[in-house]
Amino acid sequence: MESFSLILAIVVVTALAFDFTNGFHDTANAMATTISTGALKPKVAVAMSAALNLVGAFLSVEVANTISKGLVDEAGIRPEVIFAALVGAILWNLLTWLVGLPSSSSHALMGGLIGATIASAGVGAVHGDVLVTKVLLPAVAAPIVAGVAAMFATRLTYSFGKKAEGSKASEKGYRAGQIASAGLVSLAHGTNDAQKTMGIITLALVAGGAVAPDSDPPVWVILSAGLAIALGTYLGGWRIIRTMGKGLTDLQPQQGFAAQTSAATVILASSHLGFSLSTTHSVSGSVMGAGLGRKGGVVRWSTATRMFVAWGLTLPAAALVGAIAEWVTGFGSWGTGLVAAFLVASSAAIWKISRREVVDHTNVNEPEPEEPAGVVTTAVAAVAPPPTAGAVSEDLTATIAAPVTEPAPSPAPAASPATTV
């Protein structure tokens, strides 16, 4: 049985708190499109996602090993470093949740760990090759690959189902497929994101001397991490669900099915390879791809731009907070207590601010304001296949005015006969 110090216990509790925020922050990844299209009721969707997240946590430990054994040098890590890293990750998760932006919990955790490690042991304690190959490159590739796959999958879905489009049987089939694919994303989320917390707790146990170096996560770590992320998922991050489901684009069941299936494929493949992939990046990319794949679909690029900015800031912002927190914990027990108090006070303040405008399952599907089509959407629409010959769109007939026929000129009046004198 592992021996625990007070700081190690604090780290484990804080890690599970991060796992909880990861759950409600990333619920949108699995269920936003399913909720927005009406395939499942909001509370049913988050309950299903929570159960599958828990199951997924037991399927693999490859990503956990990437974090606990590969990203940083275990020899230069103290439990206080892990604690500081978690502070940076939790605060970034809460801030982005407050403004409804789907950012990466994975990258927040990575950033906090990198910043705290550099502050404690120097730049050399971070394995740059692992950071580039298993974190940064997947971060760039995931939304592109998932987006392109979802766009083509949407095109194929509409092409194959053209004859049955609009029928009740077709709509029912797509909704069933979307529920299945959303469940697959939830399962993939558990195998990928729950493992990150497993990895960080295992790293803390190694740093505190509770388990041997290069150990796999103990069973109690896997179970507690799975339960924490499942509970957070069940409570639902409704703000981010609304952004993902309604803020990026308006999805039909066919698009939701294509987006979820593409994202799940990318996430499961990355989990198998041990890449610490962001499910947020994958799902966001697939949602935008599905939006572009439907003829006439519009992606709201103002929302997407804010999301991209948040993605770019995640690693450095969490790293900065983690580094500052590590510097304060270096003053001893009172420094660690000060950082813990700051974390609790900041979290409470963010929660209080969020109560000014409550978003929950009752208003999560409120429509977003319309946005005109941007350059990318217009360009994609321009290369869409033309309508079949002889097919006349009702919209076109409504907008093209009928030709105006001028009345024929009336004949000139006949000249009156000359008056006979």
Q: What's a quick, concise take on this entry?
A:
With 421 residues, this protein is mainly alpha-helical.
Descriptive report:
By secondary structure, the protein is an all-alpha fold. The chain has one domain (6-381). 70% of the residues lie in helices and 0% in strands. It is built from 15 helices and no strands. It has helices spanning 6-36, 42-56, 62-71, 79-98, 105-121, 128-160, 168-207, 219-235, 238-247, 253-273, 279-293, 301-329, 333-354, 375-382, 394-399.
Question: Main traits of this protein?
Answer:
421 residues; mainly alpha; 0% strand; globular
Beta-strand percentage range? under 5%
Low-confidence stretches: 373-377, 383-401, 414-421
| pLDDT averaged residue by residue | 78
The largest pleated sheet is described as: none
Instruction: Using the CA coordinates, give the radius of gyration.
Output: 28 Å
Helix content, binned percent: 55-70%
The overall strand count is 0
Distance between the termini: 140 Å
* Sheet/helix structural class: mainly alpha
Shape: globular
Number of helices: 15
**Order of helix and strand elements from N to C terminus:** HHHHHHHHHHHHHHH
Number of self-contained structural domains = 1
